[in-house]
Amino acid sequence: MTAREERQRLVVLIDEAHAEGARLSAACRQAGITARTLQRWRDPDEGIRADGRPDAVRPQPAHALSEQERAAILEVANAPHYADLPPAQIVPRLADEGRYLASESSFHRVLRQAGQAHHRGRAKAPQASRKPTTHVARAPNQVWCWDVTWLPSQVTGRWFYLYLILDLYSRKIVGHEVHEAESGEHAAHLLKRTALAEGIHAATDRPVLHGDNGAALKATTVLAMLQWLGIAPSYSRPRVSDDNAFVESLFRTAKYRPGFPTRGLADLQGARAWAAQFAHWYNHEHLQSGLRFVAPAVRHAGQDAAQLQARTQVYELARQRHPQRWTGATRDWNRVGAVTLNPDRDTGATTQGRQHESKRLAA
């Protein structure tokens, strides 16, 4: 539907183009209409006709439902034995009773016009999933992420459970334990030991601990320990693993790197030895691509700025030796700033200093 003022503007432009020698059909096509449409728009008395569709008189179809039929539909839909059923259930049941009032679409239309097109029944109507919780870490020990994963054993059906806490800012594994069972007591013990090792108990600002909705991480023992330590809990949305993507990425790194015991671990001591070796490698040897390829332990200690500055100097010296080999700036070794967990896409919140996807994790 085109407003009258817009029609007048288009007609003036078309007339000008036509006066300059353009074909009328080509000018109309450029304006997005046809020559026949232009002919209908012109009126000897009014100049340019307004769109008549809003004021058009539309007679009621001969086969439309009568007021009595609409009332019968509402009466049936609100009857006690049909009040909690949708039209898709009502229409077949009426057919079993030898009655036909209207189609399902007609039931929906009548209910909608009567303001009764709401969810029927005791079950909750489908709800849009809430946005994930967003956390921003600008220094170590501000946001922790934790989870539990299974490690295979050499006995079929038996597993070892790796409990792990990751610092979001530095990606350092600040705490881990391996047990033969998954329980809240083990999770609370790891939390307490990690907080003491990182000095959280004596710190003014306590971290936020983000995890999934697993029973071990939401146990009463864990909640009591969190309250005692002054650590605020945060949870992922149910059945959404991406809300804790940094830890999930870490687990993938663990299970796909060379040396992972694909054939299973012999006993608990062997599982703990492997976990300790992996944590040391991950913290001190593995270079995080999302942190400009610095080791998590280096960033956790605040030494990444000096390391990256040294790399910048190396590249500048190389450029001075062979300037013809460099057509632009040297590689960006600037220090990564804040790190965001589950950035808000609506507001455009992203990890400071990172131009690529904020959920692209170091693998």
Structural commentary:
The protein has 363 residues and is of the alpha/beta class. Helix content is 38%, strand content 12%. It is built from 12 helices and 9 strands. The model is unreliable at 348-363 (pLDDT under 50).
Descriptive labels:
disordered C terminus; single chain; 363 residues; 12 helices; flat; two-stranded antiparallel sheet; alpha/beta
Proportion of helical residues: 25-40%
List how many beta strands DSSP finds.
9
Task: Report mean pLDDT, rounded to a whole number.
Answer: 88
Could you spell the SSE succession in H and E letters? HHHEEHHHEEEEHEHEHHHHE
Biggest β-sheet, characterized?
A: 5 strands, mixed
CA distance, first residue to last residue:
54 Å
Hey, roughly how much beta strand do the residues contain? 5-15%
Question: Strand order of the main beta sheet, please?
Answer: 6-5-4-7-8
Radius of gyration: 34 Å
Q: Give the overall form.
A: flat
Q: Number of helix segments? A: 12
Outline the secondary-structure elements.
Layout: H1 4-19, H2 24-31, H3 35-41, E1 42-43, E2 47-48, H4 67-77, H5 87-96, H6 104-113, E3 135-137, E4 143-152, E5 159-167, E6 173-179, H7 184-197, E7 208-211, H8 220-229, E8 232-235, H9 245-256, H10 268-284, H11 296-300, H12 304-321, E9 339-341
Give a short overview.
By secondary structure, the protein is of the alpha/beta class. It has twelve helices and nine strands. The longest helix is centred in the last third of the chain and has 18 residues, at 304-321.
